[in-house]
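pasting for ref
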Amino acid sequence: MGIRPRPSPPGSAVPPATAPAAEVVVRGGAPRLRLAPRSARTAPQAEPGGELWAAVHLPGGASPETLAALASRAQRFTPRVSLEPPDGLVLEVRGSLHLFAGLTGLRRELAATCRDLALTPVLAFAPTPLAALVAARSGVTLAVRERAALTGALAPLPLTGLRWEPEVLERLKRAGVRTIGAVLRLPRAGFARRFGAAQLARLDALTGQRRELRTTFKPAERFRERRELNSELEDRAWLLAALEPLLKELEAFLRAREYGVMRLEWRLLHRHAPPSRCVLELATPAAGAGRLAQLFGERLESCQLPEGVRALELRADTLFRRAPQAHALWQPGEHGGGAGQESFGLIERLRARLGADAVHGLTLLEGHRPERSFARSAPPAPQGARAAAAAAGAPPAAARPLWLLPAPRPLSVRDGLPRRRGTLTLVSEAERIESGWWDGAEIERDYYVALDAHGVRLWLFRERSAPHGWFLHGIFG
């Protein structure tokens, strides 16, 4: 005697036949339990509660940029968002229902997100992504939470939502198969032989018999947004007000990814003139819209506009990972406390007001010639100066002036001593520098620290070769 499972009722459709998990066999004695081999076609085990997918279908399609923008905004509901170009996307929302007051609230928020981009969607919810997509493409606002009710809900829908090849749909139509329910009632082996295994796998993904692998959408690592103005603007205050929505979108974009920007380009488009560029260079990665608006206000004062502005465009092509920084226990300069963020804010304001080329940092180079011992660089990021100093090694023991002249300036000589607004007093021993013989820029100098009549400390040298001239090379602060 054997106990076997009942056959599936008619209309439940083409799930693959599965072997029983176990059989109880009685042969003249105590019953024995015999395990049957597990079928390779068994349906995957779903998580407790299963998945719930939302499909967003856009009748008429959308551009790749619009679809990517919608997917980026949809990530506020779930990180599992997949594109379905050219007219839709799907997202797994089972874990988000309690955050939006259930399915009704989630549908309302998702529709509002689409309306913000001037899109009119068709929304459907189902336990599989393909089922939700087929319903949305058919114009049916399906809302099925459990797989047990999925087949019956899909049965009356047309086959066009599966987007099979036209020849496959035409052959099925000639056979009298026009709905999903009708195709699910066909014998599996015969269907695969006549229409291919790919279409059969598509049906398995539709009903949840086979798990469908999907590529998760990853937002672009750059930000570019444009805003058309209702009228041409020339007033700078109005231009800053028109820029604020773009900066808020940028802030939301950056904070969602824990990124910051150090360079922003604001393009102001004119009707008859080339676009005006307003570039903002930052000292540290920033994401706050208020801070960026203040700096753009400073930068805009130095931008010359040839005519009225009809559109705005904001670009951030390079993003930086923002790491939270711990502040020192002591105030800057107190008990070894480090420099605060105020210095970097000052650097940003100076660069916004004077231009990016007016403020720069210094980088130490390997070499003994003073003219070639440093180079200009971008202002250091937080703790960047310390890292650069550590990488360059310990500073030289001899004193060096903060202000080095672009070129040594000759000094007059009287009685063998240099003069500048009077005779100079040498207050240090000679520091000899002989270097550069390998590249044709050789120097042989004896450097001294000197004081002039007003007590200003100078850095000067005397040439070791004839005519042994004296030169002023730097001024101490």
